Amino acid sequence: MNEKAINDILEEVVRNVIDQLGGKTPNASACEKTSDVIPVELSGRHVHLSEDDAKALFGGPLTLTRELSQPGQFLCKERVRLIGPKGVMDNVAVLGPSRSHSQVEISKTDARILGINAPVRQSGDVAGTPGIILASEMNIVGLEEGVIVAARHIHMSPEDAKKMCVSDNEKVSVRLESERPVILEDVVVRVNDAFNLSMHIDPDEGNSAGWDKSVSGKILSKGWRS
Amino acid sequence: MNEKAINDILEEVVRNVIDQLGGKTPNASACEKTSDVIPVELSGRHVHLSEDDAKALFGGPLTLTRELSQPGQFLCKERVRLIGPKGVMDNVAVLGPSRSHSQVEISKTDARILGINAPVRQSGDVAGTPGIILASEMNIVGLEEGVIVAARHIHMSPEDAKKMCVSDNEKVSVRLESERPVILEDVVVRVNDAFNLSMHIDPDEGNSAGWDKSVSGKILSKGWRS
């Protein structure tokens, strides 16, 4: 038996094994994802306000009442009422600091109650989204656009991204270890020096997964699905 | 080179390939799951009533207004009010025919609004679950137990089960092809001659997956996760 014959057999074996395993070939990437545990936070309905809208609704700048997990972000003392064509929601959280554009983040459940067909978007991507009416005790402001269902995402630092072998804006699949285990696909990775490691899901996603504060997520490696 | 040496090399190659592929070995089962498309229905909050409770609330037997996807099951003309310690829900659907025990199926979102800590359970498995108050226009009935969040499940006939290579009470993972794709794990298969093929999820699960009537599910083959 010559060397070529042996090599032919070896190649045939490799092909057969790979075929039997469903055609999955190993990822050639040098970067190996670790299975770091990611804290999962539930992001309830909330509003970001522009400086002008904050002034119109509350007469002045927003006031901090509690700091949030992402550095610089805070819950405000101020609260708003959301008014849609089919329903109203009171006592909705306002998050600071103020932004260039006002934005309202609700769940699909909220969207049905308010009667607003809000699309799933990344924060800040509000072009062409539906509007809503915001009310405080002293004023009413109409937004022409800005109502979204926030796309699930993971905040992380460049160091975390490197460790987990992902990059900014990459979409990953994350398994939530919970009472009702799920894998959420199309989770957007957002990398920034100012970010602490945290995955944000909305209340629908939380409820459907039986989320509680102890639930964490794991990024699945590329090519995880057969 | 003798035969044993060649076999040793072949075995080593197979081991290496399998290692590189993440240790996944092929499923030895003779039964191969097909990737049949399963219609996915959203199961909103509803109530099943015992004959006694139906009589107490409505003075007589339940009346059919529309047949449902599962043979023999129907939506009733009668509606009830759910009364929990923190909230009330009006105009809740009653499904017939009446059962041996009354049962209330709500979502986790509903559970929070009502203030009832309902566990995820299969239909019929109500031992030790929380109670609730049901009201009609003519009476009030207190249930000592029976409030559940229905575990996601798939109804199918024995023929479907054979084709999809699953059995009654087996838990499978199902991918929903949707705006926000998810894989729901621990989906219970329920096999019965009287069942039509249909997966039932609750509104939280539907909203978190961006469900609409066009969304279907696919059972993932065993050992699908690396």
What's the shape of chain A? Answer: elongated
Percent strand of chain A = 35-45%
Main interface: chain pair and counts: A-B, 42 and 42 residues
Rg of chain A, Cα atoms, Å = 23 Å
Low-confidence stretches of chain A: 23-28
Distance between the termini of chain A: 37 Å
Largest sheet descriptor of chain A:
9 strands, mixed
Q: SSE order of chain A, as H and E?
A: HEEHEEEEHEEEEEHEEEHE
* Structure summary, number of beta strands of chain A: 15
Helix content estimate of chain A: 10-25%
The overall number of domains of chain A is 2
Would you give an account of this structure?
2 copies of one chain form a homodimer. Chain A folds into 2 domains: 77 residues, Beta Barrel (Barwin-like endoglucanases), CATH 2.40.40; 107 residues, no CATH class. Chain A contains 5 helices and 15 strands. In chain A, the strands form 2 sheets. In chain A, strands 2, 3, 4, 5, 6, 7, 8, 9 and 10 form a 9-stranded mixed beta sheet that branches. A 6-stranded mixed β-barrel of chain A has the order 1-14-11-13-12-15. About 3% of the residues of chain A have low confidence. At the A-B interface, helix 1, strand 13 and helix 5 of A face helix 1, strand 13 and helix 5 of B. Strand 13 of chain A pairs antiparallel with strand 13 of chain B, so a sheet runs across the interface.
